[in-house]
Design brief:
Elements (H helix, E strand, L loop, with lengths): L6 H7 L4 E13 L3 E5 L7 E4 L7 H5 L6 E10 L7 E12 L15 H6 L8 H23 L3 E2 L5 E2 L11 E2 L26 E3 L4 H11 L1 E9 L12 E10 L3 H22 L1 H15 L12 H10 L3 E4 H9 L2 H4 L16 H11 L4 E7 L15 E9 L3 E8 L4 H11 L7 H8 L5 E7 H9 L20
Parallel strand pairs: 3-5, 6-10, 12-13
Antiparallel strand pairs: 1-2, 1-4, 2-3, 4-5, 7-9, 8-9, 10-11, 11-16, 13-14, 14-15, 15-16
Helix pairs in contact: 4-6, 4-7, 4-14, 6-8
Bound molecules: 4-amino-1,4-dioxobutan-2-aminium adenosine-5'-monophosphate (4AD) and magnesium ion.
Magnesium ion binds next to β15.
Length: 478
């Protein structure tokens, strides 16, 4: 294969009057002369100028939207508007034809809903090219952040016996013949005969295993897929999503919140540095989209400003109890505009309440702490008031909850007592309890929903558009 230069490198090199070979996919072909070529390295297309008078008409016909081509020629300063350089082609080769009658992506604006149905091709649009380059950068930035701080990347199992969140939303894993499930004498499913000899599921969180790692390695993080069989058809939920879960020995809740705030700011800054052009493109995309809305429904800050604002301001920290007081007195609560009215202490916050706090009241990211123990998981450290636990949720504008975490209950008696109260079988979690028996120590951690982070940084409105192939109820296409 001939040496090929990626378009991004070529545009950044600032060179002209050199011979180059570029390869990519045709976005458009105008006047039998101008090819807009994109190879995914950048949103910018490279213009290839074809000497059509000296090119075989049969070849010209095969330069169609979607076709893969190789073009060799001279890189020259462009005469046209909108680009700095062109390639004056001396040789064009079609590497893969694309029938223009059948190719679903036309050079026009398609709706995001339509593109979701052709997710195998949507990478080839400007919007999805930008989203997936930003996603890639964020993923790299997360590793960089933790690696720079001496955290150990720990691979927790995907198949597990535990339902870490105790929410009963796990997908079962079995290799039983479902038409012939073995039963015990008493008629229950006989998991002893199943592949693992017990009932197993896809992990909902790597936290419990992560805690085991932290009890030896001090600071660990996981970054992997997690699965939830919750039937939520929302723009914020997926059945398969990626989560980052750091777990730190000798951290309390404040250390935990500090780390989460640092992480979020670090990765957003990283993406702004590395993917400026993509984020600028996504910012303009949103501005154009909002032009169709009435003035009062448009965002006060554009995407770039919103990201910068998030970097420049400290997140607001307050307790659940303080938040409830604010919500109780809020206009939408008094005017009964909330779907779920806040009547008293103890109820879980709905996304409308979270968004009110972040978008209307504080107008910045919020870290809410010390929730009622009844609405949080068994492993959270119990506060001295006997009512709350050392939990924290981080709420982001336009997103709601982006991080959930806590200080962990390291006191064996308190942990066992809580498990008994909620009905979590202690024998199944013997290994988890062992860490409290042998050198247990104060520790804390959190989970950052990766797609919610990508949603925030790209300004997209639906979580199904920031993961290549989304899984949600009644959909596992591709
Ligand atoms: O709040 P969650 O359920 O917390 C845990 O799983 C803890 N074990 C984390 C920990 O302390 N190590 O989930 C953590 C984050 C949420 O804040 C949200 O960003 C994301 O994961 N998340 C989802 N993202 C997409 N689709 C879903 N169905 C999600 N459920 C949670
Ligand atoms: Mg949560």
């Amino acid at each position: 294969m001939s040496q090929r230069t990626k378009i991004k490198a070529l545009l950044e090199s600032g060179k002209t009057d050199i011979d180059v070979t570029v390869k990519g996919w045709v976005r458009t072909f105008r006047n039998n002369q101008f090819i807009a070529l994109n190879d995914g390295s950048t949103n910018s297309n490279l213009q290839i100028v074809v000497d059509f008078e000296n090119t075989d008409p049969a070849l010209l016909k095969r330069i169609t939207t979607g076709a893969a081509i190789s073009a060799t020629g001279r890189l020259v300063a462009s005469l046209g508007k909108g680009q700095s350089v062109d390639v004056k082609a001396t040789h064009i080769e079609i590497l893969g034809d694309s029938d223009p009658e059948k190719y679903p992506l036309q050079p026009k604006k398609h709706s995001l809903e339509f593109l979701r149905e052709i997710a195998h091709l949507r990478f080839r649009t400007n919007t999805f090219g930008a989203i997936f380059r930003v996603r890639n950068t964020l993923s790299y930035a997360i590793h960089t952040f933790f690696q720079e701080r001496g955290f150990v990347y720990l691979h927790t199992p995907v198949i597990t016996q535990s339902d870490a969140e105790g929410a009963g939303e796990a997908f079962h894993v079995t290799n039983f013949d479902l038409a012939n499930v073995p039963r015990t004498d008493t008629g229950e499913v006989d998991y002893k005969q199943d592949f693992f000899g017990k009932s197993t599921n896809l992990t909902v969180s790597g936290q419990l295993e992560g805690e085991l790692g932290a009890m030896a390695l001090s600071d660990i993080y996981t970054f992997g897929p997690t699965f939830r069989a919750e039937n939520s058809n929302t723009t914020r939920h997926l059945a398969e999503f990626w989560m980052i879960e750091p777990e730190m020995a000798f951290y309390d809740l404040k250390d935990n919140a500090d780390l989460a705030e640092d992480l979020l700011k670090y990765v957003i800054r990283y993406a702004l540095d590395k993917n400026k052009a993509d984020i600028e493109f996504l910012t303009q995309r949103l501005i154009d989209e909002e032009k169709q809305k009435p003035q009062q429904d448009r965002s006060e800050l554009n995407l770039l400003e919103k990201l910068q604002f998030c970097l420049d301001n400290e997140f607001k920290r307050l307790t659940y109890t303080e938040a409830i007081d604010i919500l109780k007195e809020s206009t939408p609560n008094k005017k009964k505009k909330f779907q779920y009215l806040i009547e008293g202490w103890g109820t879980d916050l709905q996304s409308e309440h979270e968004r009110y706090l972040v978008e209307k009241h504080f107008k910045k990211p919020v870290i809410l702490t010390d929730y009622p123990k009844e609405i949080k998981s068994f492993y959270m450290r119990q506060n001295d008031d006997g009512k709350t636990v050392a939990a924290m949720d981080i709420l982001f504008p336009g997103i709601g909850e982006i991080v959930g975490g806590s200080q962990r209950e390291e006191r064996l008696d308190k942990l066992e007592q809580r498990m008994d109260e909620i009905g979590i079988p202690k024998d199944e979690l013997w290994w988890y309890l062992d860490t409290r028996r042998f050198g247990g120590c104060p520790h804390a951690g959190f989970g950052l929903g990766f797609e919610r982070l990508v949603l925030f940084v790209t300004g997209m409105g639906n979580i199904r558009d920031v993961i290549p192939f989304p899984r949600f109820p009644k959909n596992a296409e591709f």
